[in-house]
Specification:
386 residues, mainly alpha
Length: 386
């Protein structure tokens, strides 16, 4: 295997591992074959009585029954998830409906992002659009009234802000270019990701780390940092959409099948279905295989006029066509995604030193980039409100 092929293989494996980690630390460990055993010494081993012959026969029968039940449950899960997959792909064929009903992206957001991307942007142009998005107005008012930012404003005034128009003026255009994309993606996140209790938090952390890494890398490579940050935020919109689609579709299809099994008196099937829960393996595979493609479709439908994302997303989804060169923003996004995933895997001790070297080499990180990124903050926006 050539060094390039080895690096590509490592990058692919680590990308999948990062997706697995979204669904849980133990699940990610299982996927790479880690089996943790806890050896506890309770002192003297407990004496066990010899099983009578009749007990041995009964135990064997129970094991057989349990094995048969597990096989039946696995078959029921396969049938259920085949139906779920069909339903999800059918919904993805109507991306407008996904944008409106699953993500809840309003047209006004795309217009606001476009205005913020141009030099002629002004608070006056933004104000009526933000007034039409009540949730965004509330978020901005809440932000400027946080004790941290009220303290920053105290040298001028510490009065409580009670309307979006005033909040906009305190925050300022430069800050809004980073705050609006952050609030928008946070607004589109699923309300709950049960039974994957940490998935919502990890999606939020992943999005923020990706956007901040993109901003830093863009600054070092003379690429527009606002473009990089905004696309860094939007890049995970496919993962958000697919997570919401899967959890909603699972519940709908599962309920129908449970009701049908009860109606037709299929007791074994009914029992098996009641034991089924959303499957992390199905979801991680869905996210890994389809999320970038869905992100590209959603971003294209947003019809952003002044943010040059279409060509970048095409390269991220399909690769660079023969004879073309990689767009600078594409390179920034690839590095940002790599670095944000690295941070997550490193935190959970799911990446080895040799894998890190191969991964960073594959994406051609420079020493300056890595040194700068190592001392950067990836958890929240560092903004000043005067």
């Amino acid at each position: 295997m050539t060094e390039l092929a080895s690096q590509q293989r490592t990058a692919k494996i680590l990308n999948q591992r990062a997706h697995d980690l979204l669904l849980g630390h133990s699940f990610a460990h299982q996927q790479i074959g880690f089996i943790h055993t806890l050896d506890i010494d309770y002192g003297e081993p407990m004496k066990q009585r010899t099983l009578l012959q009749v007990e041995v026969a009964a135990q064997h029968k129970r094991q057989q029954g349990s094995t048969a039940h597990h096989k039946y449950r696995a078959q029921a899960s396969e049938v259920l998830h085949n139906a779920i997959e069909t339903a999800i792909f059918k919904q993805l064929n109507d991306i407008d409906a996904v944008i409106e009903n699953t993500l809840g992206i309003e047209d006004g957001i795309a217009t606001i992002l476009d205005i913020l991307a141009v030099k002629s942007a002004s608070i006056g142009r933004l104000e009526p659009l933000i007034n039409d998005l009540s949730w965004l107005g509330r978020e901005l008012v809440t932000l400027v009234n946080l004790p941290y930012y009220r303290k920053q404003r105290s040298k001028n005034t510490s009065v409580k802000v009670d309307n979006p128009a005033l909040a906009l003026r305190y925050i300022g255009l430069e800050n809004l270019r980073f705050i609006i994309p952050t609030f928008a993606v946070r607004h589109w996140m699923p309300h709950s990701t049960e039974p994957f209790s940490l998935l919502k938090r990890r999606l939020n952390e992943s999005v923020m780390a990706n956007a901040l890494a993109a901003q830093k890398i863009a600054q070092m490579n003379d690429v527009n940092e606002v473009h990089a940050f905004t696309l860094g935020m939007l890049l995970d919109i496919g993962r958000v959409a697919l997570t919401r689609l899967y959890l909603k579709t699972f519940e709908q299809v599962w309920q129908r099948k449970v009701q049908l099994a009860r109606k037709e008196n299929e007791k074994d099937l009914h029992t098996a279905l009641l034991e089924l829960k959303p499957d992390p393996l199905f979801l991680t595979t869905l996210l890994n295989n389809k999320s970038l493609e869905v992100s590209a479709k959603v971003i294209e439908k947003m019809a952003l006029r002044y943010l040059p994302f279409k060509g970048v997303m095409q390269q991220l989804v399909s690769g660079v066509e023969k004879g073309d060169s990689m767009l600078p923003l594409t390179e920034v996004m690839l590095k940002a995604r790599c670095y944000s995933q690295y941070l997550s895997l490193k935190e959970h001790q799911l990446i080895e030193p040799d894998e890190i070297v191969a991964w960073f080499s594959h994406f051609k990180f420079t020493k300056t980039e890595l040194k700068t990124l190592q001392t950067s903050n990836f958890t929240n926006l560092a903004i000043q409100i005067d």
